[in-house]
Structures are given as structure tokens and as C-alpha cells.
## 1
Amino acid sequence: MDSIFNNLFNNSLEAFKLRREKFARQIIIKWKNIGDLIEIEYSDNGIGLSNVFEDPNEIFEPFITTKKDKTGR
């Protein structure tokens, strides 16, 4: 769970940096019990998912990223 939330927060912070205008940054985390399970909903008001992804579920695949290193790769 630590690595999941760490990744979500890092992605939100990166998305906030990419918005050009001034805005109130917002991260919302909601949760609820569903029987023996906990459902967690996470959202932010960053720039949204990159157009690179045709299917939004691609973001859950291992090693998928839109981030580039210092050389642009």
C-alpha cells in the first residue's frame, strides 16, 4: 500500500507542475467498507491522463510510464 500511495502522490505532484495556470491543488482520498473489503477512491485536479494511452487500463501494466529521463528517453 505504501508504494501505491507513494506512486499516486508523485504522479499528482508531477501533474500539478504541468498545469501552466495558477490553481488550488487538490487531492481527494475517499474510502468505504464493502463487506470485508475496503474500496479506496483517489483523485486530483492535475492535467489528467496523457493522450498517449488509448486504453486507460494500460497505466496498470508493469513498466508503463510517460515520464522521461534527462536525455529525453
Note: Residues 2 and 67 are 21 Å apart (CA to CA).
## 2
Amino acid sequence: MPEGDSVLVAATRLHAALAGERLVRTDFRVPAFATSDLSGQVVRAVTPRGKHLFLRTDAGLTLHTHLRMDGRWDLRRTGTGLSGRAGDVRVVLETAPWTAVGRRLPVVELLPTAREAEVTAHLGPDVLGPDWDPAEVLRRLRARPDRPIGEALIDQRVMAGPGNVYRSESCFLRGVDPWTPVGDVADLDAMVSLVKRLMEANRSTGAQVTTGDTRPGRSRWVYGRGGEPCRRCGTPVRRGSQGPIAQDRVTYWCPSCQPPPAPLRAAGST
């Protein structure tokens, strides 16, 4: 699942392959930009901001994409052809040595580079970016003390980058039920620091390993393990949806290792 570390890895690979190269062919397979052509422009840089990816050219244009749940960027040597389903392709950027293929991208737009800030103005500090500011993240979290911590951790307006994996794993490692109100989290600073450490540990691979064990099936504590025994206590891991209607996202937790606060236990919320 693409989160901030995955996007950073994709941006790093694309930058290494494309920066300084002239585009010889571009193909935008989205209606709004189907007639756009960037051929002749030189790629200046490819950079991430949270889960957003920006490719800038020397003509002052930026290609903005967002992977969301299923999007990805592939790199192939130019001339080797495109593998996979043709219907998945949204963008093709061809240079002499490399061709970048964006697949299943839900967000594709071209905009003046000078307007990039408009796209990211709502974002909080980037966990893996140069603007990281834990004090500001804590301020934004504490501004809504009644909000469930599991919702707040993946709100990109609070901090940019974390998604369902790091939300679930961080709450488990801190022993916090995801529905615990932000104001009731005993050590909010430690929670934010843990999110940062986990994502930093995966920034070069995007593998989202949180247990320290890279073997298949052993890389995570609770995420993706609904119904399986907790690695600590053996209680079946639970899976549920969290968030406002139409914005709810999947979360995982161990009901024994992450007991809810007393008011939630009484109400049977989790």
C-alpha cells in the first residue's frame, strides 16, 4: 500500500533515471490532458511531498500525481516495450535511456510549477521531508482532543505521509486502542516519534516492515492480520473501519494489547 515511504522510494528512482534527461515522447491517457505533449522538455527534478509526487520540467511545468491505494510508477529501458495491462496505463514519459509508466494513478494533473504550493497547502509537516516539525504536528493533533487517535494519525492535514499501515502498527506498539480520543493518549509525543522512526526505517525500501523481521508474513504486528493470533498474546487480531462515512479506512488492532479507555469499554465501541 503506497504511503509516504513508498512515494519517497518512487520519487528517488524516477529522479535518478529521468533528471537531466530530455523527454522524447509523452502520452497522457486521462481525458483532461489527453492532448498534452511535454516532448522536448528536460526533466529538472522528481520530488515527493507526503503522498504526492511532483515531476518538474525546465518549461516551468509540473506533473502532479498521487498513488492513493493502487497507483504505481514503473521504469523500463526505452525500447523494451510495456508489460502489464494496457488499460492500467495513465502516463508514459519516454527519454532516450528510460521510460516511466504511471499505472492506475487516480490523480494526474499538469500545472505551472509556481502553483505547486496550492496543491500541498493543506498538508501538515512531511514525516520524511525537510519541513518535519514534531511540535507543529502535536499542536495540530491537540487542536481536536476528542478525535480518535486512529483517525488523526492518517489525517494528512496533521502530518503528511502516514497511512493505514503506520496508523495500525503505531497504535499497537504504543498499546493504544485506535478509538482512544487524542486527549486521552498518555504520551502523544511518543506516538508521533514512533511514527517518524517507523517510516524512517523504511524510507529506502518502502517495505513498511515494523517488526524488524523481513521474512514473508512476519513483517507487521497487526496490519493485514485480521483474525490471526496476536504475535504478543495470541488474541485474534481485529479488523474494522474507522473514520467518517465515505472516508472510513481499514484499521487493525489487538483488543487485549490495546484495551480501550474505560468510557469506550462501557459503551462497547470497540
Note: The mean pLDDT is 93.
## 3
Amino acid sequence: MSQLHLETPPLGGVEPLDRLVVEDLLTEARERTLWLVEPISEADVDRVHDDLMSPLAWDLAHIAAFEELWICVRVAGEDPMHPDLLHVYDALETPRAVRGDVEHLDGGEAREYLGTVRERSLGVLRRADLARAGFVFEMVIQHEHQHNETMLQTLALAEPGVFKPPARTRPAGSRNGIPSDMARIDGGPFIAGAPEGRFTYDNERPRHEVHLPAFEIDRLPVTNGDYMEFVEAGGYRRQLSWSEEGWAWRAAEGIDRPLYWTDDGQLRRFDRIEPLNPDLPVMHVSWYEADAYARWSGKRLPTELEWEKAAAWGPGASRPRRRPWGDDPATRRRANLDQLTFGALPVGTLPDGVSGYGVHGLIGDAWEWTASEFAGYPGFHAHPYREYSEVFFDSGYRVLRGASWATRPSVARNTFRNWDRPQRRQIFCGFRCAA
């Protein structure tokens, strides 16, 4: 196969990382992937645990196939190991609903594929022109990081006993004096979108000026306790708070509480049942449920650009922050992004993660639904392939912002745009309100 023409960099440009840094990041990503599946039986690695999700074996081989396609084939011009299976591991050609039915590598074969591809990729890394192709390696790393979270969604949906996460002690609930009110964001222009520098996806660019009127946004995400008030007030029984589409979905599916809430007021989390903590951000609610709660409370969901302004900017700021608390990677631990806790933390636990406008918990606990439909920014340019973003534009997907406890640091940034169907609840998603 011929080399991919990579002379044109992504819109906005990407500064290449040092070769040894790239190798370390590739190694760390793979260690995390294999660590997630190491305690799982081979039968459960190969099984379809929920119709919404892929078999874990498919995810493993897809990670390998994506890496092979972009690094070995398109950068180095090498031949693929399994050309007859490339369509199987193309996420658009083989949608989730059929991945368990088509011929694919089993768990052991997928691990072997991962190992062989990695050896080849490291060989390419040693001789590649990173000024031209460095963004490909960063894309491959972020892709694997994103699939780690997808695999955790699958493990959360699996029957209790399939996966037992390590026990971690959470801090006791404490709002640290943070008021449960709304922060006012003055109207005016701001710069939205990703800056030059590190790799970001095409849908985060180009940077552009946005003018927003003044608005208010919750300082804290909606908690289990807040949402319980909605449930107990008959929120799932009264159509008044719901959109027409949302009420039809709720009625058709028989939904009367968030996913994983039990009928006796507790919460299933992987292999255990535990009391519902009122101070944790509510999670595993659909966009329809988030929208209904916001209507019931007399508010609304923020647009994604309102969310980004509240997260990335602040009074008097001359430039945006990459994360709500700033750009210094040393603060990640304080913001709960370096250690997998297998769950969100009580709201207000990490006050160092506050944004310039005084908004807390924007990144690191739960993805947050916004009012916006997924579409390209003005001047959007697909890169390096249309299938990542463009094919999903303007087709009913809703944007989520922030990051969850399961999101890797490379993806946890103020400009990252996640998206899903408004009825989806398997993602680690919550919300906050605006007015």
C-alpha cells in the first residue's frame, strides 16, 4: 500500500511530541487497556453483555486495527495483518448491533494482534517524521483512551460478578462551603474551540469568536439528592415537564428512575449494591431525563458554548484555560484525573478544580448533557477522516461536555465534544442547569 499523504496538518496545526514521550504514552495506554480486561474470564471477554455495546474482544481488536491502519499502513505503507477483517473493525461498516454476530477475533487472538501491531508501531515511531505524522500517534493514543471508557461502560452493564473493580475509599461528602446557587456569566464575546498545540479532534476546530448574552449556570452539578426530589415529586408520572419526544421515550421504555437506581432506593455499581449517596452527581440519565428535570426546576440545559465559556474563561481572562482549573498538569491529581476511582466524587470535594467563573465539577466526575445538537463549527474541515465527526452532524445527536471519572486525561479538556443519542444512558453522564 502507498503512504498516506500527511503533508497537510490538522486545521490549526499540531506541535509534535518528543519521540520518547510518544513511546511512553503508547505504553501507558496499552497497560491500562490490558489491566481492565486481565481479571475477566475469556468467556466474558467474548460475550455480548448488552445489545448497545460491543464484545470486549471486538474493542481490543478494533484498538489494534485502528493503530495498524493509521501507523503501520498509512504512515509506513506496510500491509495489514488481517486485510479480510478490516471491514469488521470499521466502526461504521460494522455497527454495535451486529458486532457479536460477525466473524471476529476472540480475546486471545485480539491480545496477540495488539502485541504484534504495537511492535510494528514502535518500529515506525523510531523512523517516522514526527513533524509530518506526529499527530497520528497522538490520535491513536487518544483513540485507545476513549475505548477504555467505552469498555468500562460495557463492564458496568454486565451482570454483577463479571467485573469487580478494586475497592477505593471515597472522601466523605463535603461541599466545602460552596453555595448551591448559580454563577452569573456576563454577556459578550469569547473565543471558542481548540487552540494550536496539542492534537485535538476536527470537531473542536476552528477557533472562532462567539457572542453570548448573559446567563447563569449551576455552580454544582445536579446531585442524586436533587434528582430524588424530582422523582418523589412525580417527575416520571407527569408529562408537563417533558418534551413530546422525551415523554414518548419514557412511556415506551417504562422508565421511572435513572439507570442503575434500584426500586428500593439504592444503586448498583458494577458488582455491588450500595446506598444512594445524595451528594454524588446524578449519573446515567438520558438527555430526555436531564431536560425534564431542568424544565421541572424552572431552568434549562446550557448550550455547549455556554458550558465552554463557564469552564474555560473567567472575568478579566486574556486567554482560555485548557481545563477549568488551568493548564498545569501537576493539578490533575487534585482534580481526580490520574487515578481511576470507579465512580464520581461527592460534589465540592475538589475545590481546586473550580473554573474562573466559580463553577465546580465541570471535568472529572460525569459527562454533562447540553442543549446543543452536534454540528460542525463555522469553517469546519474534516481531518484526518470524515467518519470521526462529520457523518454524525445534524442528525439528532446531543453534545456532552466535560469528562467523567472514567475519562483519561488526554481527552479531558474544555474543548472536547462528546455526543450521543438523547435516549442513551450507558455513558457516565449527568448534567447541570442554566437560566
Note: The mean pLDDT is 92.
